[in-house]
Here is the input.
Amino acid sequence: MYHHPASRIHPQIADCRGVCAVLGVALLDAALGEDVRLLALYSVGPALSAVRAAPRAVIGTGAFAGLVAVLLTLHDGILGTHRAVSGFIAIALVTAVSTVAARRRTRQESRLAAARRVADATQLAIAPSMPATEGPVRLAASYESADTGAHVGGDFCEVVPVRNGVRVLMGDVQGKGLGAVSLSNTLLGSFRDNAPVEAHLEDVGLRMSCSMLRRPDEERFATMTLAQLTDSGELTVLNYGHPSPLITLADGTGRWAHPRQPGLPLGLAALAHCEPGSYRCTLHAGDRVLFHTDGLTESRDEQNRFYPLEARAGLLCDADPAACLDRLRADVHAHAAGSEGVDDSALLLVEYQGQPGAADRPTISAEPGRRRLPLRHTPEVLGCHVCAVADCPLRDALDS
Here is the structure.
């Protein structure tokens, strides 16, 4: 574990804090006079060093404490007395115990650091760093865990460029732990493989549903939002039981991208033969879309009130997307201060930059228009004849 240079005299000799504690006891001992000697109290030096220092530094601090005690007993002429020997034994015992404790602590810190590196690598695969610009958009992403020591969760997002636009994924796997991380990685892999090549956004969701159904031992479900934003500003959002994105216009007003009929989460929609909820609109240059997970809107204050995201839409304007997300995070923390109402949350802010000669913005409206699965969705096209999933509800829906 890294220590600031000021915290040690030398990493192999002694710990600065422990040495200062020993010197403090020595000053107190000198002030009390020769009639009172605090020999056993010098063991506070190695005991304090065990909290942060390396084992060798603890031993060095204990040796320094013993040396100071020996010099004092020589000065007083009580070196061989029972009083002096008992003090030396106390210092030696505390130094030994503190050294063992420091060794165990450093081993635990090494294991935690290794686990943190693995977690960071896993989180980078699930929520990679986003480019500042992708196609017709500027964007920024942010992930935050409710556990300050955790770096991995079930929230995930991704942006993939396609011809004349980008496709966006924001999702949240039910539950936590390695199972949620594994399913998140499966869905992300499916999105990254299919989003650049499938002609229709619905096909991407169908492929992701297939990927999830190929995990027969998986009893989880996932909510997600699929979106496509074209160079001309046409926004299409498919909602699989996920919190709706917030559209923030250039003037600072916010509108929810609510589908007329919401869809079911991925993993449940196939069982109910349900299509995703759909929302379509046209954006103007400067308009922004905030994709998020429920950890944001479900943050609660001390009165158990949820975070009013729509009322805070102005925080998402008049600054760089990354700076806007920082402002939003700070506002959420202020809202939830003093409460336990903060959950894991992922944020993705997408700004449409427009294109030369773009038409004026039409009125934003939601006219999803439900429709049946397109004819291209057939068991043969999806490869159902080689899929190992038995009694697949999605295959039954396609056959019917």
